[in-house]
Amino acid sequence: GGGSQTGPAKQEGAQDKPKEKLTIMLDWYPNAVHSFLYTAMKKGYFAEEGIDLDIQMPAETNDPLRMAAANKIDLAFTYQPAVAIARSEGVPVKSIAAVVRHPLNVVLVPKNSSIHSPKDFAGKKIGYPSMPLDEVNIQTMMEKDGADFKQAKMTDIGFDIISALATNRVDAVIGGYKNHEQILLDKKGFPVRAINLSDYGVPDSSELVIAASDKTIADKKDLLARFWKAASKGQDYVLNHKQEGLGYLLANEKKEFPLEKDVEEKSLDILLPLMNEQGQSFGTQSADQWTKVVEWLKKNKQVKPDVKPEDCFTALP
Amino acid sequence: MLAVHQLTYQYPESSTPVLDNISFAVQPGEFVSLIGASGSGKSTIFRLISGLAEPNAGSIKIGGIQEKNRLGKVALMPQKDLLLPWRTVLDNILLPAEIAGRPKEEATRQAQEWIIRAGLSGYADAYPSRLSGGMRQRVSFLRTIMTGADVLLLDEPFGALDTLTRQEMQAWLLSIWEQLGKTVLFITHDIEEAVLVSDRVLVLRSGDNCVDVPIGLGRPRTKDMVFTPELAAYRQQLTHMISGRERE
Amino acid sequence: MLAVHQLTYQYPESSTPVLDNISFAVQPGEFVSLIGASGSGKSTIFRLISGLAEPNAGSIKIGGIQEKNRLGKVALMPQKDLLLPWRTVLDNILLPAEIAGRPKEEATRQAQEWIIRAGLSGYADAYPSRLSGGMRQRVSFLRTIMTGADVLLLDEPFGALDTLTRQEMQAWLLSIWEQLGKTVLFITHDIEEAVLVSDRVLVLRSGDNCVDVPIGLGRPRTKDMVFTPELAAYRQQLTHMISGRERE
Amino acid sequence: MRRKAYTYWPAVVFFVVLLVAWEMGVKIGGVPSFILPAPSEIIGGLIRYSSELFGVHLLATVEEMLVGLLLSILLAVSLSVLMFFSPLFEKMFYPVLIVSQTVPLIAIAPVFALWFGYSLSSKVAVVVLISFFPLVVSLYDGLKSGDSEVVDLLRTFGANRVQIFWKAQVPMALPSFFSGLKVAAVFSVTGATIGEWLGAEQGLGYFGRRMSSALRADGVFASVLVLSLLGVLMFTVVYMWEKRMLKHK
Amino acid sequence: MRRKAYTYWPAVVFFVVLLVAWEMGVKIGGVPSFILPAPSEIIGGLIRYSSELFGVHLLATVEEMLVGLLLSILLAVSLSVLMFFSPLFEKMFYPVLIVSQTVPLIAIAPVFALWFGYSLSSKVAVVVLISFFPLVVSLYDGLKSGDSEVVDLLRTFGANRVQIFWKAQVPMALPSFFSGLKVAAVFSVTGATIGEWLGAEQGLGYFGRRMSSALRADGVFASVLVLSLLGVLMFTVVYMWEKRMLKHK
Ligand SMILES: Nc1ncnc2c1ncn2[C@@H]1O[C@H](COP(=O)(O)OP(=O)(O)OP(=O)(O)O)[C@@H](O)[C@H]1O
Ligand SMILES: Nc1ncnc2c1ncn2[C@@H]1O[C@H](COP(=O)(O)OP(=O)(O)OP(=O)(O)O)[C@@H](O)[C@H]1O
Ligand SMILES: Cc1ncc(C[n+]2csc(CCO)c2C)c(N)n1
Ligand SMILES: [Mg+2]
Ligand SMILES: [Mg+2]
């Protein structure tokens, strides 16, 4: 947090404003998808809005949502269906903005695998990072492809999406991103193929959204709006200056963990078209997409029938 | 100084009492020996007097007072040496002074003098594992003396010593006893020793009260008295008493 | 049976040798006592003979053979009783038989007989923590006897016993010795005991060779011999020898 | 001082007080129940999920745990004995032993999986890795710190090293061994759970994790409850065994 | 038997042989280097990432570890002493202690995060949770198993409970305490690593985990190497301390 007040932030001349603290937790370790945040921070956009942003990393996939719901943090990067599931379990959170508007999550198989479409999952070990949601993904895909989900051996692989596949402990893995895990595996000499979820009946969803608790939304409406204004400005900058935007991310990480520039570059190329929609401002959510996702979750008994799509998200003013 | 009245004691694990209705008294400044067959309960009496165990029946008075907590009132030298292996000879000897909170320097001076008197010079800084059996016993004896208590309960203090060293230690004990007016209750299996050093000898027989034999020898006692016929007579009498023969 | 020649030994931790050029021999079937001041090295000699330590110089022959590994060749009764607290009295006594792999039944019968002889009947199944000092010593003695070795090294075996029990144990030891033709080397601090039981007495003086005193008393020895003038003479002679006075 | 029969009521009273405080704290203090559910909700979860918990996952975890603990004991005993008898082996092996404890499981999880696959053995391996260290250290220290005078006595009886070992050194090392075994027994539960994080299809740890990702805290804590009871049970069994073995005290 | 000075060469030789075998195995056996890199690659990683490893993460981990271990010792000592002096407290507390060990960290991680946040204290808490159990058990067992005759002797000197405790029971419990401390010292490294999985922005465990997610095995194993050395160092320090304290043996 303290670091964000030094350096470029001062140049913008916003130092006199009293700053409000805002905490956001990422969905994963910092990677290309988070460039807009680091850019906005380094360019002083948050400072301009009177925001002192603290970026935290999660310990576990579900931490951001839970911590946000418990008001330990203000904002959480999370997955669209996860918000609906949370509401269904009585966890009071809402999505406030879509960051990546389309799926990144794919099923990865080794390049020379005999698996070519979901019906080939039958009799194979499918690894997933302990998200019940992934079982529904696989089920939907297999049923669409005319196979019986019971034939797949679903295996919980814990934290290590990548090495589970690379060590041939599983025949396929779901939960890796086509902009990240796929590129990494290819680069490290373990070529893989991706099977898209949306090709086999899984509805188009926003891979990453930002969520906050009902209470935070009610109490800090103005602050959140200012946050998103600054974040959007950051995203605009990244869109127009890809190299520089990425540079802010890499620079921020340098001390603790050297990111690989080429991987992040490729990643950002894939990401940017999925983040901004022509004619819509950054973060705009589609009621239609929410309805489809919630319907699909209901059909697969992942959420209770009384979950309303419109409760799952809210637009910022 | 020490009065034991109708003492009865039975170990919790055991089915018969070790001590059954035992009574005796020791006057201030007296030197009394306690003899009896192995397993007759001598050490048990010491456990009771020192307060390590409570009698099932009977009373124990120290200095005329029957106290609930007798611990720390008398000095007990146990039959096993029980030296603390992690302390040097000097530190073992200083233990009672430490516990009493006596000034360290003065206690150390006294301890070092006594180490020399006990023939242990050069061993002050040795750990007990380096000592011979008799040396360990002497350290244990010194430690008991260092409590400074007026009543000394000594359980076979010189049992592991050769004649000469034993005589020196006896003479020294007698001098401490006389000069400082201590009261001593002394367990030994050596009847000669008992007769030589004591004013009275108590003979303990299991399942029986103890018999009191005053020793009519003059003071100071010298080691040459061992060869006198009086001593030989006491010796034979006591030997027979232990074996229970004098009653037949 | 046992020949010790120019033995020299120094503890690694210590700066001067405990034993310096010691020589003596024990004939088969002989009963020899070893006396000397506390700390003179008696127990150390036993450690060397039994093979627990190796001399710095000199040789040790057992049965005429100078073996490298003497462990298990002689029976050593240590000065401390060293009973295993997790074994009952009987099981402690059976230990050597177990180690030798002797049939359990026969050994148990023998052990039980001996438990009775040693006045410990009723204690076969007791754990050592329940025994008195003298009882522990007797158990330790029985355990040593149970090794069945021809040479017995006994380090103050009866030091914690009252006169009567001691006399019984002595008589018993002598009967085993005579009947089974054992060779016994016996450490004691009781000169009377040494004279009464031995064929010869070895007097150990630190920094000096040991002196050999044959005891010209007839066999069988009875406890009443204690009162004979011959014994008294030996006793005085040996006492003076330990203190080093006879050389002046 | 400590002779009285072990009575359980103070622990029970304490636990009840703790539970009531917890229930109140959650209900009044407003701790969100998706993070820390109240005891009553946990009991609810236990009932709701009882068929899965007890029918499937408990058995799986118990199997991993017992197999692992048994292997640990075997391994720890053999290693301590080897180290005890061979100073060379000790010098070679002790450092490896310590290193084995500091390697973070998450880092070698792939290696583990490479070797053991996702079968029972990978979880057993984790249990062994976690529980054998306290065992080895305490057993080996116990063996080393035995009274050398007793050992000497047995040597004079002509006992060979094996006899000395069994008749003197092992009994003297038992108290220390049991200290280690108590720790190891409890850690075997933890080991099984961690093993299940690294990849599993059943087991209480697996169940808890899935419940956690489904944001069902009642299920998470129901499995935690079962795991804790398992740990307490393991400890108690060892404690009873210790009492029996060391009854001469 | 075991008097000779501790020589290191057998361990060194053994390690060298192990490393060579590993290098060969990886190079010849065709284990993919992103799963198990050869020692030479690990050394390469160590050099490549040395500024991050030693400049940032090592310090963070050492801090968590030392603070945690110190707290553990304090806590374990106080608890054992309390349990030792108060049988009531023991009966109340021992079961809680065991339960605390069986609760899977992953399950209470959110609770931890809720209480401690993602700060130093959450990692310290994990270190304490993991390392104080072996300490408490061994210290408490050590205190309980002390020779009662020695205690009786001190009682006859009029020693009060505190004096008996310090002058007899503590020295008698020391060997057992050190057994536990050796285990705890090594586990404190593991604890810090696990603490870092549960949420961290620096530390060797964090670094290794991120390296793993980026499939950079050389970095993973470089951090593992540093962690192992740390563990061995901790053990050695305790071992030396034990030698000094128990030199009368
Ligand atoms: N382990 C040891 N390390 C160093 N010195 C020792 C050791 N054991 C004994 N000594 C020393 O060796 C000398 C002889 O000891 P030893 O036990 O042989 O005497 P002893 O004749 O049996 O005496 P006692 O009659 O008192 O039993 C003593 O001065 C003692 O301090
Ligand atoms: N802790 C105990 N539990 C049960 N019985 C015991 C215990 N301690 C001693 N006894 C028994 O009490 C009796 C007396 O023991 P005590 O130690 O008082 O004898 P003693 O007269 O000192 O003998 P010794 O001269 O052999 O030392 C013995 O028969 C012994 O077996
Ligand atoms: C770069 C990147 N890789 C993986 C994940 C993790 N992840 C992707 S989808 C999903 C939910 C279930 O499939 C999870 C946990 C991420 N967030 N970011
Ligand atoms: Mg006694
Ligand atoms: Mg001796």
Describe what you observe in this structure:
- Chain A is an alpha/beta fold and 317 residues long.
- Helix content of chain A is 40%, strand content 17%.
- In chain A, strand 6 (125-128), helix 6 (132-144) and strand 7 form a beta-alpha-beta unit.
- Chain A is built from 14 helices and 10 strands.
- Mean pLDDT of chain A is 88; it is low at 1-14.
- Chain A is globular and about 60 Å long.
- With 248 residues, chain B is an alpha/beta fold.
- Chain B folds into 2 domains: 2-74 and 150-247, P-loop containing nucleotide triphosphate hydrolases (Rossmann fold, 3-Layer(aba) Sandwich), CATH 3.40.50; 79-148, no CATH class.
- Chain B has helices at 42-50, 89-100, 104-117, 133-145, 163-180, 191-197, 229-243, and strands spanning 2-9, 19-26, 31-36, 57-62, 75-77, 151-155, 183-187, 200-204, 211-214.
- In chain B, the strands form 2 sheets. In chain B, strands 5-6-7-3-8-9 form a 6-stranded mixed beta sheet, with helices on both faces. Chain B has a 3-stranded antiparallel beta sheet with strand order 2-1-4, with helices on one face.
- In chain B, helix 2 crosses helix 3 (104-117), helix 2 (89-100) packs parallel to helix 4 and helix 6 (191-197) crosses helix 7 (229-243).
- The longest helix of chain B is centred in the last third of the chain and has 18 residues, at 163-180.
- The model of chain B has no long low-confidence stretch (mean pLDDT 89).
- With 249 residues, chain D is mostly helical.
- Chain D has a single domain (39-247), classed as MetI-like fold (Orthogonal Bundle).
- At the D-E interface, helix 1, helix 4, helix 5, helix 6 and helix 8 of D face helix 1, helix 4, helix 5, helix 6 and helix 8 of E.
- Chains D, E: The chain crosses the membrane at residues 7-25, 65-85, 92-118, 124-143, 177-200, 220-241.
- Chains D, E: It is found in: Cell membrane.
